Amino acid sequence: MILIAGVLAAPLAACGGDGDSASSGSGNSGDDKIVLGFSQVGAESGWRTANTKSIQDSAKEAGIELKFSDAQQKQENQIKAIRSFIQQKVDVIAFSPVVESGWDTVLKEAKDAGIPVILTDRAVDSPDTSLYKSFIGSDFVVEGERAGDWLVKEYAGKTEPVNIVELQGTTGSAPANDRKKGFADKIAAAPNLKIIASQTGDFTRAKGKEVMEAFLKAHSDIDVLYAHNDDMGLGAIEAIEGAGKKPGVDIKIITVDAVKDGMQALADGKINFIVECSPLLGPQLMELVKKVKAGEAVEARILTNETTFTQEQAKAALPTRQY
Ligand code: GZL
Question: What are the coiled-coil residue ranges (predicted)?
Fold first, then answer.
């Protein structure tokens, strides 16, 4: 695995393109410009918005023609978009799979059409790794472990029960599966740390608020919330305050992503710890696209380099956050 030292964002420029500009037209742009078909999960969170911007800005920067499709978090829309890219004979296809399973058929169609595929952000569970050239994105198990590790240290030496509720990401998605696993593996070291409720909030603020309201109605003794992304954590903060409790104090909160709104809540003391997950994959993706188009060998797995933030670290980092 190749560690990328940091993830430099392309100079941020106002990016054009709407949510679903999978423009029609012939496959190649007629000149020697590389044509990339990209199927995005949706626009469900601040992380996704930043990820889309990084991809659109980087494609422009790299002189790559981008055909962009927003799947509104539906796998069938991603499969449709990939089939459309195949028909348009694009040079390369890249996508962030909304869930891990159910991709083999369409990826085989791309392979049979001689169009290389790159996975970004999320993985697929297909055993046939010849169906894609490379996967660039985070190690979500490590992200979950970092969250669990912080909690074990936060309660080190204490034996009283600590009741945890968990807001999971999109059901079946790699980040939800892996962040759950990594966190559970780590807190197993402290038997007093117990997950008393765990449910999907689909990575959105609205759903995160709704599920947290239900948790609060069902449990009067919640000590900690572990949310698989900032947006669900921010929705949960609204629910916690609505119940007359202090987020970050009465209920400690750990989230993943480190988007600006999450970092602001962390700096304000409403969140206690954030594990970073960088959305700025655009520059590396465009480099990969060029190499793949040129038939060069590429790394099978490219890991983004990420960190974690405490409340103090968030205050220091906020002024220069790019997303
Ligand atoms: C993680 C990404 C997740 C983010 C969420 O790489 O797939 O999806 O953590 C986003 O905010 O919705």
Answer: none
Predicted confidence at residue 17, as pLDDT, reads: 37
**Residue 199 falls inside a structural domain:** yes
C-alpha closest to that of 21 among 88, 69, 92: 69
Domain that holds residue 38: 33-138+279-305
By DSSP bridging, strand 224-227 and strand 193-200 are unpaired
CA of 175 to the centre of ligand 1 (A): 7
Residue 176's CB is within 10 A of a number of other CB atoms, namely 25
Average pLDDT for 293-306? 94
Contacts of 54 (CB under 8 A, 6+ apart): 9, 10, 279, 280, 281, 282, 283, 323
Distance (Å, rounded) from C-alpha 126 to C-alpha 129?
A: 7
| Residues 134 and 181 placed together within one structural domain of the fold | no
Residues with CB under 6 A from ligand 1: 44-45, 47-48, 121-122, 137-138, 175, 203, 229, 231, 256-257, 277
Ligand 1 centroid to Cα of residue 304, in Å, is: 14
Q: For residue 256, give the ligand 1 atom closest to its CA.
A: 9
Q: Across all residues in the chain, what is the average pLDDT?
A: 92
Instruction: Give the ligand 1 atom nearest the CA of 257.
Output: 9
Per-residue pLDDT tens digits for 181-240: 999 999 999 999 999 999 999 999 999 999 999 999 999 999 999 999 999 999 999 999
Q: In the chain, how many domains are there?
A: 2
